[in-house]
Write a structure and sequence with these properties.
The chain is built from eight helices and 43 strands. The protein is elongated.
Length: about 675
């Protein structure tokens, strides 16, 4: 499980364990297990027949619990805490409830709250203060919890987790031992957004003890999933948890209770007297500060239903989900919880995705007279989003996915679901570039232009991709597709119709030239400043088509004749050769550079401070400067030949003729001419 420090997630594995032999790891864990069983506190519970069962929550506090569930904004551990808080309102106050947390490291499992009556709020408070991090030792958590129970204790372990044990232990074997020592103890798994692979690994933990797995893929399902898991612990309320994960489950109706502390039990529905929504809503509860002009927010939470203890007084309750919202004024009495059901006067917009599984963006905006209604908003989301709750009225639904676009007008009715078909009249186009031998060309760019006589220029560019084999979904139309390598280009006109599945291949007669340079006499050439060039054409028509400063570049070129060359730095050391490119053939060319090393220095009698501001120039036989520098004692490589070395200083100048041979190393001392 990834770890979170602040807002950054990292994969953490303690260095001390990374390279331990497996036998040593097993031995270490056995010692830790023994210590747990020897030192764990025993929860004093009456385990005689007929004794009330205990419920122990094993809560994952590893780093991955900072992740967010689909449809929510809170971290997973806080979303689970909210779901528990809602469920606790339905439990008898005398329920023997305990808490074990695990995480922080592979040895991090702690008995936080022993099972006892009236511990619900303590459990919620401790979970709220968690700072999840590091690994998730599920096996150790199960051992820690069971070791603290007297043998044959009846009850249930509620294991909240979002993945498998990642501390190299076997929680299934631990569950098997628990079933032997505590035959009246079941382990239920509340699996929060667990992958199919991890779910299959963990299923045996519940199976070994006769427990069940309760999956929750998103926020909308979590609250009802936790409620079903706790309901399954009661013999009279066993339920099948095999409903499709991720489906919102209708919340139980809010109930007023005349006794107990004062407060509110809030829920919402689409219509008056309709069933409670299972989707999470944003609840805001505010209270007058006395003068009725200023208000204080006392509750802000996201949940399908909400139960809060509140002081007696008058409150404004508002709930929002999707595009819908509602509010009402409520009076909280001196005692008892008051049930409040808000009717949103809304319906649902259900998005039917593309049949080919493409996912895009959907915009839902008010239409017609509803567009001018105050408070009406626009929604933007993914086409894979759950049904959108929206006030009754007229809307425009716009679906966009790359070049694909579809627009529909719909009417949402109160309490009903309106389906929206997102299928578009598009075709599929797969592009590929190859050599005549069938080898894929990966260094390729495809440009797509749609023809439209109504547009200036007869069309417009709609797509550019460097994928070497893109699979594109395009609206029906006529396109000009260009395939571009670095040094060649081809274009084709392609007609795409609805439901077409077209595959188009561009064939380039390319061959490869691999270039290297060799400087005779140079012991090391790794630092030489080389620049390679590829030119084509002759005379005034000659042009450069490729250049590289790589040490050994490879050019994929169309078949034809070329001149390849290399230059050494900014001097006059160069080499070139003719090259003929043949399709599907790779040839290697080494360009031989011929040079000598030249070092320049002032004469011994002209090296004082007054000569430090100098300028060196080296001229070839045509009088052209081939090298210039202001270093005091410079060194360079030059092509063999005759040169004139000129030195300019503040108090004088000098020059000297030099003959530089191939492979030679020559030091030239230049004296001074009096001004």
């Amino acid at each position: 499980m990834p770890t979170r420090r602040g807002h950054q997630q990292v994969n953490e594995q303690p260095k001390a364990r990374r390279h331990l032999p497996s036998a040593l790891v097993r031995f270490t864990f056995a010692v830790l297990t023994a210590l747990v069983f020897q030192s764990a506190p025993t929860w004093a519970q009456d385990n005689k027949p007929g004794a009330p069962p205990v419920t122990v929550i094993l809560f994952d506090s590893s780093g991955s619990m900072w992740g967010k569930l689909t449809g929510g904004t809170q971290p997973k551990f806080l979303a689970a805490k909210e779901a528990l808080a809602q469920t606790f309102t339905t439990l008898p106050a005398k329920t023997a409830l305990g808490l074990v947390t695990f995480g922080r490291s592979c040895s991090g499992a702690s008995v936080v709250i022993p099972p006892a009556a009236d511990t619900q709020q303590s459990v919620i408070n401790r979970i709220s203060n968690l700072n999840p991090r590091s690994k998730g030792p599920i096996a150790l958590a199960l051992q820690t919890a069971s070791a603290a129970l007297p043998p044959d204790t009846p009850g249930t372990f509620m294991l909240f987790h979002d993945g498998p044990d990642n501390c190299r232990q076997n929680p299934c074997a631990v569950a098997r031992n628990i079933a032997k020592q505590h035959p009246r103890l079941k382990i239920n798994l509340i699996s929060i957004a667990v992958s199919p692979e991890a779910a299959s690994q963990m299923q045996c933990v519940a199976k070994e003890t006769g427990g069940k797995v309760f999956p929750a893929a998103n926020v909308a399902a979590l609250g009802a999933t936790v409620a079903r898991a706790f309901a399954a612990t009661k013999d009279k309320q066993k339920q099948d948890p095999s409903s499709a994960p991720g489906e919102p489950v209708v919340a139980a109706a809010a109930q007023s209770t005349p006794d107990g502390p004062s407060g509110l039990h809030l829920s919402a529905s689409l219509i008056d007297d309709g069933p409670a929504l299972g989707e999470p809503l944003l609840w805001i509860v505010t209270k007058d500060d006395g003068d009725k002009k200023t208000r204080t927010t006392v509750v802000a939470a996201e949940a399908p239903t909400l139960v809060r203890r509140l002081d007696p007084g008058t409150y404004t309750v508002s709930a929002g989900v999707g595009l819908a919202n509602a509010s009402t004024i409520v009076t909280v009495d001196e005692r008892g919880t008051k049930a409040v059901r808000l009717a949103l006067n809304a319906g649902k917009i259900a998005f039917n995705p593309q049949q080919d599984g493409q996912s895009g963006f959907v915009t839902v905006k008010p239409d017609g007279n509803d567009a001018a209604t105050p408070g009406r908003k626009t929604w933007l989301g993914r086409s894979t989003a759950p049904p959108l709750i929206a006030p009754a009225g007229n809307y425009r639904v716009i679906y966009e996915n790359g070049l694909l676009r579809r627009e529909d007008k719909i009417a949402v009715q109160t309490g009903k679901s309106t389906p929206v078909d997102l299928a578009t009249r598009n075709g599929r186009l797969q592009l590929r570039a190859q050599t005549p031998a069938g080898t894929d060309i990966t260094d390729i760019a495809f440009q797509i232009r749609i023809e439209d006589p109504a547009l200036t220029g007869g069309g417009r560019n709609v797509l550019l991709t460097r994928a070497h084999a893109p699979k594109l979904h395009l609206p029906a139309g006529t396109y000009v597709v260009s395939a571009n390598t670095r040094y060649a280009r081809q274009s084709k006109r392609i007609v795409v119709g609805p439901s077409d599945d077209i595959s188009e291949t561009f064939t380039f007669n390319l061959g490869e030239i691999a270039l290297t340079a060799d400087l005779a006499g140079a012991a090391s050439q790794s630092q030489l400043p080389l620049v390679f060039h590829v030119t084509t054409g002759t005379g005034k028509a000659r042009r450069e088509i490729a250049r590289s400063s790589s040490r050994s570049p490879t050019f994929a070129l169309p078949a034809g004749n070329y001149v390849v060359s290399v230059e050494l730095g900014s001097g006059n050391v160069k080499a070139s050769a003719a090259a003929t490119v043949t399709p599907d053939i790779k040839q290697e060319i080494t360009l031989k550079l011929d040079a000598g090393k030249l070092t320049l220095e002032r004469a011994a009698n002209t090296q004082g401070p007054q000569y430090r501001d100098v300028l060196w120039e080296v001229l070839d036989v045509r009088g052209q400067v081939v090298w210039r520098t202001n270093q005091l004692r410079p060194t360079t490589l030059l092509a063999p030949g005759r040169y004139t070395v000129r030195n300019e200083a503040l108090l004088g100048s000098a020059e000297k003729n030099v003959e530089l041979a191939s492979g030679a190393t020559q030091v030239v001392e230049v004296g001074s001419k009096k001004p």
